[in-house]
Queue: 4 jobs
Job 1
Amino acid sequence: LSPGAKMGFFTFIKVMMILFNLAIFLAGGTLLGVGIWVKVDGESFLDIFGSISSSVLQVVNVSILLIVIGAILLVIGFLGCYGAQKESKCLLMMFFSVVLIIFIAEVAAAVVALVFTGLAETLLTGLVTPLLKEKYGQDPSFTHIWNVTMTKVHCCGLNNYTDFTDSFWLEAHGTYPKQCFGVLPPLAHPHPCACLLQGCFPQILDEIRTNAVVAGGVAAGIGALEIAAMAVSMYLYCRLDEK
């Protein structure tokens, strides 16, 4: 290519890099704002988006997840957009490094999820069960999330009713959550342990397996975008040496 054509191509890639990362920056700001909203007023958020309450995200702290993802996207978007606009080799290399680290972490997480599924289930159980014992009935947002989930999915706790044994809720109310008794009220069960619903975890796993193809496609698309972003940032980085 002639020098003019090379410069034109460089300018085009630079503009695309700026626009792409500007979109990432705005998306990160949006997720960060939504995460703060969920953290401050989770109940109103769930009232609006109640149809997704049975998804797997209901077993984790959605607000923290959104805030973390939003903050990461803000950093990536800023580094890519400002680095391309200012033609800063330092910022472009930082952008490349951050995206590469995230890409490696995603690949490692996918490998762990495929190879060590049993271990992942154990870790999730070990994380969520203590939260149910400590926070259910004390944290309004956490309690509301689990109430909606157990009602819609028709389940009790993550594993089963024993998740609420020795819990704050059981000590405060003397019985298990009403969702654990299905269609019958708690007093209709003289021996609750024999009558409670199954845990939510098996049904969550079924939902994950059902949507595994879609999730895999989304993950592959994100990975392709990350590879493209790294390639573009490295192209701009190398071209700056030639200018």
Job 2
Amino acid sequence: SCTDSPVILKILQNWVPRVSHYFDKEHYTYVGHQIVIQESIEHFGAVVWPGALALSQYLESNQEQFNLKDKKVLEIGAGTGLVSIVACILGAYVTATDLPEVLENLSYNISRNTQNMNMHKPEVRKLVWGEGLNEDFPVSTYHYDFILATDVVYHHTALDPLLATMAYFCKPGTVLLWANKFRFSTDYEFLEKLCNIFNTTILAEFPESNVKLLKATAREI
């Protein structure tokens, strides 16, 4: 059910004062590392949305509950890569995925923030929701401990393919962590569909930002 009592949190000001004067770079600090994110104004996926800040913060604060060290982590709709970078710093084997047009900026951010660090080298791959999943990520080869998704639900036409993608990757033993800013009735409809398919818990709410963070796991057959 989705009727849990989530912890109420606030998105902390984890970004540090701008060192550079460029409008397109944001500086954040998570898990003791300064992370510099280049945003792009051309693409939706290339801006840091509040769900990414909420999930990054939550992963940093709840490392015992969600220990990512040496775990296989897939981020869908990775956007600027902030969450994937944080997961990487926390020791995960990360695969960050998004649409082809976002990959260049995503790769740039991930490589510049994870190079020269003693961690598993992250991978960046194309993943179009609902398309070519069996070919590109065959179940026999790819099993993930965690699926991460932030602000993937908004006014777009790919909500059903997104849900199908979550269902495809969220096998028994996998934990899906999804953080989203809730703005539209369609967002709540998506949440309802998610609750119908998975065992779903609202872990945290960030009321000032209208962000909810959910944990979903596959139902036992």
Job 3
Amino acid sequence: MAESGGSEQDGHDMVFADASLAQRYITFRPQPPQALVQRVTQHWKAGLKGQLPEKSVLVDVGCGSGQSCHQFAEHFDTVVGVDISPDQLQQGRERYKHLLNVSFVEGSAEDLPFAASSVDVITVCAAAHWFQLQNFYRQVDGVLRPGGVLAVYSYWNAYPIYNSICLRDTIMQVWEGLGFWPQQHQHLRTGYTALPAAYADDVYVSAAEGGFEVSHPS
């Protein structure tokens, strides 16, 4: 498998750090379905065989404005979102300030600001394809506790319905026609199946298999 060549810090995706974009991002970016949140949480608990930590910690890397990490607030004692964009983080702080166990800190995937063996679960939503993955994996190994879990997931485009007609093919024609997408976006198209594996016991679950669907009323 070929490693993603991009990084959060090499300029490929710094457009997400723009202040005006951050305001739109928190409104329009999809958040993971509850089925996925439950799958990640259950997988972690199953591996511990009932020996849950006294204080559980989840870290969401590349959290943006927090669309993913806030959903784990009811399952973990502490949830921390990490991102390189202060503007994205500020949006998250404002939107989720009512969740007292959720906080946001500035940092990068390749230099996680956490002590060794201090984190139970690390999640990454629609961001891993930008990381220097081998450096990120080393960071994960350092901060995860024994029995910890790394959960990497994403989403790919939409199936909008207008007048009972699915516009998916039209969207894909536009996507192909624009032609300026960086190489890392190919990982989204393949459902992350080509990302380098982090561990020998990695588990891959497709959207269809896991029932991971985000839907909105028309």
Job 4
Amino acid sequence: APDSDGGSEELVLTPAQLIRSLEQAWLNEKFAPELLESKPEIIECVVEQLDHMEANLKRAKKGDLKVSVHHMEIERIRYVLSSYLRCRLVKIEKFFPHVLEKEKSRAEGEPSILSPEEFAFAKEYMANTETYLKNAALKHMPPNLQKVSLLKSVPKPNLDSFVFLRVLERQENILVEPETDEQREYTIDLEEGSQHLIRYKTIAPLVASGAVQLI
């Protein structure tokens, strides 16, 4: 809905488009080596859609074949949604100091990679980790060794890993390999519908913009 000044509009999606958006976010999150931008609007709308579908099922006639079909669709959507959220939590637990550092250094107006609930979880997880390390090991160490940098101790996401992708929007002159002493600069065009195996950090901005889909 437009805001009070009429300066912005909410994107309206059909139920089918909404589910496709969820599936796209799920696949991107599943195959990307780093935690991607949070999609709270999609999650909220999907939950509302599921509630609406379940309400419709309660009003349907028992024994109607459509009831079984719609019930299976609800379970499928719930699986995708829970898998998406679970994948994000696994990444937060795995990369929590880097996730929090990225969130802290985020420029004003830049999309957050964490929902408010995920941000609270990440902070609590970091605090619990620090407390455990202190009580289990650090307090028994010499004073000069009782501090540890989690940013240095916890591995970063491997942005140099390779990912499979499908091109949704044609892209030109994508820099695949920068120029070095051993090789010249290498760029390619990505044709719509084509599939590629490419280093993730090369196409990370295209994943964020929705121009490509990880598969």
